[in-house]
Design brief:
Protein name: Sec-independent protein translocase protein TatC
Number of strands: 2
Keywords: Cell membrane, Membrane, Protein transport, Translocation, Transmembrane, Transmembrane helix, Transport
Largest sheet: 2 strands, parallel
Structural class: mainly alpha
Oligomer: single chain
Main location: membrane
Helix content: over 70%
Pfam families: TatC
Membrane topology: Multi-pass membrane protein
Radius of gyration: 23 Å
Distance between the termini: 34 Å
């Protein structure tokens, strides 16, 4: 295929992915009651799953520090077209999130023919694992990171006379940032996998800089979550586990590459 043919193929992959995202966006737009009443505004209500689980865990363990009250704030819209604009933009974000696995699959279909047979074999299941990690990150961000951040920030007061009247855009921006940040952070094992395949990362390097990585992970957790120690610890633990998993993945990749090279060398010597 010529360069123009490759661009044409890429264009159709992008078009199909865009169509899927538009379909998911329209579905989210039509499901307004569920989108806002249940999904987006859920963490602002006292009966949200996370708050109920933390309260139940606190009662079972006898730890009052785990108790989480209803976030004390009122959501407001101060622009004439604010709610309509937020409806459209939120629907697009949900459509993009739901369409991400298909988007990655289309891009993978474009890249896959250019790989060597052993690279295609070693990368089998990449779309599945990328999608699973993305969904796990979304769930962790939506049910853990975002509620902890919203509850802490909404409950923080300089003085009892100051009421929290939060703009709708600010609330949704916080929820989206927390959720999507965790979704992409959870892709760390797959990022390390592709870097290890390219020879840019080795398990020795990751073990050597483990202490530095821990510091970076703590900084990332501090950025994702509010200045609450318990929330930072809760977010830090799964990221540390993902880092350790990434070291194991890099070790597997190198072992397979060494085995393949030894096999190729043995085959060449046998032919000679």
């Amino acid at each position: 295929m010529s360069f123009i043919d490759h661009l044409e193929a890429l264009r159709w992959h992008i078009i199909r992915a865009a169509i899927a995202i538009v379909i998911f966006t329209l579905a989210a737009f039509l499901a307004k009651d569920f989108l806002f009443g249940t999904l987006i505004l859920g963490p602002s209500r006292a009966d949200f799953w996370t708050y109920r689980m933390f309260n139940a865990a606190g009662e079972w363990m006898g730890a009052a520090g785990l108790h989480m009250d209803k976030p004390t704030f009122d959501l407001q819209n101060r622009q004439m077209s604010g709610q309509l604009a937020m409806h459209i933009s939120s629907s697009f974000v949900v459509g993009l999130v739901l369409g991400f696995p298909y988007l990655f699959w289309e891009l993978w279909r474009f890249i896959k023919p250019g790989l060597y047979p052993h690279e295609r074999a070693n990368s089998r299941g990449a779309v599945f694992f990328v999608s699973v990690l993305f969904i796990l990150g979304l769930l962790f961000g939506y049910y853990i990171a975002a509620p902890l951040s919203i509850n802490f920030l909404a409950s923080y007061q300089l003085d009892a006379s100051i009421e929290n009247q939060i703009d709708l855009q600010s609330y949704i921006s916080t929820l989206t940032t927390m959720t999507l940040s965790c979704a992409f952070v959870f892709e760390l094992p797959m990022i390390v996998f592709f870097l290890a395949k390219a020879g840019l990362v080795t398990p020795e390097i990751m073990r050597l800089y483990r202490k530095h990585a821990i510091v970076v992970i703590l900084i990332v957790a501090a950025v994702i979550t509010p200045p609450d120690v318990s929330a930072q610890i809760i977010v830090t633990i799964p990221i540390l586990l993902l880092y350790e998993l990434s070291i194991h993945i890099a070790r597997i990749v190198r072992r397979k590459d060494v085995s393949r090279l030894n096999q190729e060398l043995a085959d060449n010597q046998g032919v000679a």
